[in-house]
Amino acid sequence: MPLALLALAIGAFGIGTTEFVIMGLLPEVAGDFGVSIPTAGFLVTGYALGVMFGAPLMTVLGTKVSRKRMLMALMGLFIVGNLLSALAPAFGIMLLGRIVASLAHGAFFGIGSVVAADLVAPDKKAGAIAMMFTGLTVANVVGVPLGTLVGQTVGWRVTFAIVAALGVLGLAGIAKLVPDMPKPEGVHLRHELAAFKNAQVLLAMAMTVLGFGGVFAAITYIAPMMTHVAGFADGSVTWLLVLFGLGMVGGNLVGGKYADRALMPMLYVSLGALAIVLALFTVTAHNKVLAAVTIALIGALGFATVPPLQKRVLDQAHGAPTLASAVNIGAFNLGNALSAWLGGLVISAGLGYTAPNWVGAALAAGALGLAVLSAALERRDVRSGTPSAVVAGAVPTTEQRAAAHH
What we know:
By secondary structure, the chain is mainly α. Helix 11 (236-259) crosses helix 14 (306-316). The chain has one domain (3-395): Up-down Bundle (Growth Hormone, Chain: A), CATH 1.20.1250. It starts with a helix and ends with a helix. It is globular. The longest helix has 31 residues, at 3-33. The chain has 17 helices and no strands.
């Protein structure tokens, strides 16, 4: 594997840590600023919305510069946002810092996915994307628990200062190791936007929103659910998040491996199993051992969908993958924001701390339905010979074949 993938993984590690560590530190941050837990939840929702809007915005701004330079600029933005969070005198400033950091997130993973895929042979692309996302998943095993521990013992501000330092490390790695790839010739914003006319690209993104929403409906409220329902001590939330992270690492690598072989079957299995496990979590949350196993499974099944969905978008948005790739990262976060909000609604409605798990199960089941629909449309297109069916790089589309004959 090229060393440049390591630099991308370090950047991903920092970004993953800042995105997820807030969930373990919500009580501390809320207490410090004197706001309620649902209000502090805006630090999760605000970040997710920032990723969603920042992904296309930053990618469009970056069409004028090389991908390497853009990745470096994004790491710079990430460092500034985390320093702002670490030093925030008031809740509003903390929220602003989260949003600044989040603007870098989507475009970093979107452009990073394209760069990672370009660094390797065609049959290794999903594996290379998974390799970069390993930084994000390892963040959940190492970065988030350590960050939570530091935050609970020394103070949450120290956690954000450390994350900013990780950003500096990522920036240096990208500067040194990522080759300066020329911008693809002739790809303008118009081409990038054309990808969104493709129903398959939109379906893949919708699967991302719902599938990932399923995961985060349960995980956003993991701290209150595990302490109030399962009866864990506050300190146990850290190692429960480690289990979630270990599941993510395993699921991401398995998903990357099989997405290069059998992409759609991989999605059916992971989304179907995710819906079932989330529904069962409403029951298993009452037992410490079963709750712990379920959390690991949610991480594994949720992240097994990431490389296949990301590759599906890159394949279907042939010729202009950068914007579609970044927007799909935004879609993951739209899922996070949507489910954190829906989970908060059902808790506020007095349905209890396990209620978000039902929300999650319904979202994951919806994603599975879309996967089945997407495959059915693809089969229909193949039969009728419509171009959208053809996966990039595999077979030339009808127009390309026609053009070749003229």
